[in-house]
Amino acid sequence: xxxxxxxxxxxxxxxxxxxxxxxxxxxxxxxxxxxxxxxxxxxxxxxxxxxxxxxxxxxxxxxxxxxxxxxxxxxxxxxxxxxxxxxxxxxxxxxxxxxxxxxxxxxxxxxxxxxxxxxxxxxxxxxxxxxxxxxxxxxxxxxxxxxxxxxxxxxxxxxxxxxxxx
Length: 166
Prior knowledge:
This protein is mostly helical. It has one domain. The protein is built from seven helices and no strands.
């Protein structure tokens, strides 16, 4: 049976997203560690133990799953059944964490930022509102790829290809 094109496409895109995710996470950690104490997000992290714990857990967990994504991409390109399994595992993780992260950010970050900004009438209020809308929009966009991964990894031709590849 000929390898479906979607396996190659998802293999390459998984690898690209893994590299981008690795460098993006490193950049995010550097920003968090060097955050200016006057930044409102810094204050929120200091005031909210729940948000701070979520960040401390989600960043290393994210790095672990970036590794899973990279391995999944390599496995797909080598036509290994575990590449499909790893892609499905990553997609499940990405959906759960995307939804949970959106909820946590809405409750612990966006809400307090908008409340702080509502007390001022300057650019801070506009920035907080724009950040809230952008964050929620970004969460929705971030869910598209894992949904596509699941759709394609469960397509009949992909399932059959990996079943005969064992």
